[in-house]
Amino acid sequence: MKLVPTSLMKHAAIAGLCLAAMNGARADAFAQSVLLIDNFRLLHHTGDAFKSTDFTSLNGAVTARATASLNGASVIANAPSTSILSSTMPDVAHQFVGLPTPPRAENDFGYFSVSPSLPGTFGYADQNMSGNAVTIGSRLAGARVETRADASLRSVGEAGGQSDVGTSTMFRFTLGASETMSVSFDGRPMTQAYASSGSGGGTNAIARLAWSVNIINLDTGTIMLNYAPDNLNGNSQRSRNGDYAGDSTFDPGWLTFSATSLMLNANENYQLTINQTTLANATQDRVAVPEPGGLALFGLGLLGMSLMTRRRN
């Protein structure tokens, strides 16, 4: 019988053990949420954009934040409150914890690619806003709001990453003439959650969006508009875990949205509030279970080591 050379058995054993280690106890969880709102305008019933001169009173503010965290370490940034009549809107510096550093350049709202490899271990968030919802002097109506949140884990054991980001705009106004008010904008929602096969039930990834606008009569308490489209809310939620592995993606492309209020009476006081939030969370709280392929490779490695021992004897 022809014997297998000892050197060959040695290399096969080492390779089997190494491949088993690579293929086995590794936990991957990833979630990303990106929401782009463009050309947001407040419109008359005629379709023309409201101008600041259409209001007998108009004031309000825009606030924004970005939060990122990983394994108990977190960073947060809040933009100073900005007047809705200002020519400068909030742009929160991107926030990140973990590696790579940074995961994305400032104001980069492009999507990460999950396959074939995850982008790292980090919590990440970013926000940017420009333009205005009504025409103010020579500045035409049309606001753009971009938010993103990402959480990624490539570790074994107890770990967690999460990030969130949000923008809130509030108008307080009184109209000079009775009129309805419509909101009109384009939106690009994208959410994705991924969990690797064999990472176990302790691995979870969740991504979701939340967007709403409402108008309330401050004098009577009547809700004049309450609009929260499904594609920017419940339809966007995506989740995966180690027992339900793979990726789940919501990416319908650019969509058009609009809604119209009840009649707004002249000389009554109203408040319009817009909230936009992107959320991503990833957790891994236990050691991953090696996949069957990894166990097979590990077994081959042990077999090779056993043959080497028997041959020496």
UniProtKB/TrEMBL annotation:
- The reply on keyword Signal is yes
Q: Which InterPro entries match?
A: EDSA_1-like, Ice-binding_C
Secretion signal span:
1-27
Question: What single Pfam family name could you report for this chain, choosing any that match?
Answer: PEP-CTERM
Where do the Ice-binding protein C-terminal domain residues begin and end? 288-312
Highest taxon above the source species: Bacteria
Keywords in alphabetical order, please. Answer: Signal
Tell me the protein's name: PEP-CTERM sorting domain-containing protein
- Give the organism's phylogenetic lineage: Bacteria, Pseudomonadati, Pseudomonadota, Betaproteobacteria, Burkholderiales
